[in-house]
Structures are given as structure tokens and as C-alpha cells.
């Protein structure tokens, strides 16, 4: 992780990233306890991990990251994401968009607004996504 990403992640945690990550982790625990929510619990933990330190990381489909098809990016993952969007994804995305708009008012808040926009996208379609470092997100040249 570059020094700039490290500083941005520390500032992110100090100015609100920790409560967001803890909220997602608690949601993941609650979903896991319901048994029915297990497929979404993994997505919530992925979001918590990403919300803890979004700078220097990238969201990718799991089949692209692993190089082979995965069950979470197939038809079952699509069904899971549709259920997610209908139940919680849309309002989570709106929440992140509101934070992004509020932060984008100041120049200093622009990097944090961008992080909220990335989280908004992940909030809409989290099943089948993985978090990788920016260096891993670049496909190798052939």
C-alpha cells in the first residue's frame, strides 16, 4: 500500500470509516445467525472489509479474480443480488450517495466522496464480488 493510500485510509477510519465497517460486520453477523441470510452474510463481510480501508483496493467479480467461473457469479449469484437489491441494496446505495454528495462539497472531501461512490456500487450488487489490492486488479499483459 502506498503512503498516500495509507494516510487516506487512516483519515477515512478516523472520520467515519470505522462505524461504517462495524455496521456492516454487525449486519453480517446478524445475517449469519439467521441461517437464511448466509449468502448475504458473506457479502456483508466483504463490504465491511472494503469499508474499513477502501483506498488502494479495487472491487472485482470473483470469476475474473480467480480466472474461472464461480457459483456466486452465475445464475444463483444473480438471484441473490436481485433479492439483495430489492431488500437492502437500493437504500444502502442511496445512503452512500448522500454521504458522497455531502463530502464532495469540499475539495478535501473529494477522495472520501469517491470511496463512498465505490461503496454505493458494491452496495447494489455485492454477491460474487471480491476485494483485491489495486496492483492485483490490473490484468497481466500478454
Description:
It is a single chain. It contains 6 helices and 2 strands. Helix 4 packs antiparallel against helix 5. It has one domain. A two-stranded antiparallel ribbon has the order 1-2. With 142 residues, it is mainly alpha-helical.
Number of self-contained structural domains: 1
What general outline do the C-alpha atoms trace?
globular
The number of distinct helices, counting runs of at least 4 residues, comes to 6
What's the N-to-C terminus distance? Answer: 25 Å
What is the ordering of alpha helices and beta strands?
HHEHHHEH
Write down how many β-strands occur, each being a DSSP E stretch of 2 or more residues.
2
Tell me the fraction of residues in β-strands, as a range.
5-15%
Which helices and strands appear, and what pairs or packs with what?
Layout: H1 3-33, H2 38-52, E1 57-61, H3 62-66, H4 75-104, H5 110-124, E2 129-133, H6 134-137
Antiparallel strand pairs: 1-2
Helix pairs in contact: 1-2, 4-5
